[in-house]
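Predict the 3D structure for this chain.
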Amino acid sequence: MQIGSFELWPAARCLRQHGKPIAITGRAFDVLAVLAARHPDMARKSELMTAVWPGLVVEENNLQVQISLLRKILGREAIATVPGFGYCLNLAVTTCGDATGACRTAAGGGLHGRAADLAELSELVREHPLVTLSGGSGIGKSALARHLPEPPSATLARVDLADCTDTTGLLRALAGALDARGTGQPDRAALLRHLGRRPGLLVLDNADRVARLLVPVVEELLAHGAVHVLVTTQVRLHLRQEQVYRLTPLAVPPPGTSLAEALQYGALDLLAARARGHDHRFALTVPVLADAIELCRQLDGLPLALELAAARIPALGMAGLLQRMDERLTVLATGHEGVPARQRSLYDAIAWSYALLAPDEQALWCETARLQTPFSLEDLIAVGGARDIGRTLDLLGTLVERGLLRFDTGPVPCYTLEASHRQFARGILKTVVGA
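Done. Predicted structure below.
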């Protein structure tokens, strides 16, 4: 929806101005969505409060705070107050037509804290024939890819490659998604002929285990010229045409941040939204804010961990869950059968990433769990035995690329092993090495 000079993308929960993402809290976004839907009519206060705080009894001051935030974003005169009744938008509101596909987004839950990522990734996909969306397990690669707006030439297919382990399975998945199965074994030539009739965007999702097998397939697709390819993976393809967009964890508010400001950080906004989804009575209030921020910090802003944590809040509460962070690898889990096995617990997600590593990469990663974090390259070399510096740097590069280590530039460059990864790696050391 076009609101004055702003673009409101309801499915992606994204607000932009002149193509640039605008920071907005989840509740303020919900208020704006109702106001836009009611335009040019007034939205009653009761209607707004029911939509934004479903099932909760809240003071009218909470609504006034969100209106104030919106006026700071949209302009002081953008929202008119109808005394005693409600509010209405003073800006022109139009709905983008489906013919251009400009405002369409994929179905699915709303994104939180990813407005800038969505805008930047969309631009990369438009401008380059091959884009790799990389990042560790549970970082939200698939969710972001699902929310990409369809290009004018339309999305050709979205192919989930998580269960593929060989070339035959890969080609079958591609042929099935493209409805080009034929009668015999699928081959690249048949796929190319089919793609020649249907140019567009091809999304190859969860390509972790078949990234190397994808290389010749993607090279031929790109040689065809009409197809743009987006690959989500922890293991990049290393092709010359490849543009890599590395997804990072959601932003975590610093301790002491006010409630209104804290909700502008993606990690806290996601945690609060998912907690409300599991219990409509949940409300993120000032008394629990410090614990919520600390929980986001301990989970390093990882979307999957925050989703799993939100499901435990109705039974444990924020403080109770925080007290069990030493058991996070098993406490943060779900038995829901609709969730892929690799995402049913925080342990499973990290184990998926660990299994993708070569033995020497696994060994180095576990070594880092012996060090205090953050640590320097010199600290690692000191405990690395006979491994040479060149090989050590190669291994570190792989771990950073796959989100298993974080490299921080600064006056003293250093590496950080996140707390959840540290717990997993120490468990491996105890089991395998006996450390």
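The chain has four domains: 2-94, 115-246, 259-347, 357-433.
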